[in-house]
What does this fold into?
Amino acid sequence: MSDPTPFTDKKFASRVDWNLMRTFVDIVRAGGIGAAARQLNRQQPSISAALKRLEEHVGASLLRRTATGVEMTAAGKAMMALCEDMLESARMMPHQIAQATKRVEGIVRIQIVSGLVSIEFDEAIASFHRRNPEIHIEIRVSPWRQVLDALERGEVEIGVGYDNGVRGSLMYEPLLVERQQLYCARSHPYFGYRASRFNELKDEGFVLTGDDEIELITQLRRRYRLGTKVNGLAEDINEARRLIVHGVGIGFLPIYVAEDDVAKGKLWPMLHADFEPFYDIFLLARSQPARDTATQLFWDEVIRRIRAQHRS
It folds into this structure.
């Protein structure tokens, strides 16, 4: 039997107990009434009664019991989306009030991979500083695995980088899709020539980026035996670019990092565009939601710009 048509209560906001919505979210996130009761250290009948009262307020069933727990009805999904928005707004209240009253101080610690080119990230830094001039921004540069490790250890609050897997302790927000290309210097015999097969480059001397090399690039090199002859090594993308520009060897670089040198005729892209490897670069943070105000405001600034870009 379907639910009756929900009634519209013009006084709903003043009559409803907002704690019921918090309990509803807890039930959904826990996966069931019993699980929520155990997590909240409350009696199961009180959790069931809270759900029933909320359903009476909205005039519709929000959850269906299943063999494995509960699943949301259409009304439940709508309620969950609204509840999450309200909880996020409540969580942000002290941060936004602190910003509005110019009482935000502190340090935002960020660790990023070298050679990062992101308009959204740069604009977020500029906007954030204008609004919060008393907050100190500290940026460290390291290979991508060290970015992930520093976040998990709590040495920094925000990271920007690559990950070849998913760490449950971290949050991932796609920032950009980065492409790489294989480059040689003007002095190299391949300058002006596009390689049609990777195999023909297996005897060329390479400049490698060590621990900063993206896993996708490592797999590509190993598959075609590229880089078995190493002429140079630099774990900073900009320094690897320097070695390639000066003819030490050929090597992979992010396209944005090399585009000025390509325009000036110092570097040559050796691969056809269809061969260019690409991967996501993420804005990263620890999964735990509690952050200091300075960090939370910076995270929200970057997220807002990323999502605005995706909508445009």
User: Anything to note?
Assistant: Residues 110 and 227 are 32 Å apart (CA to CA).
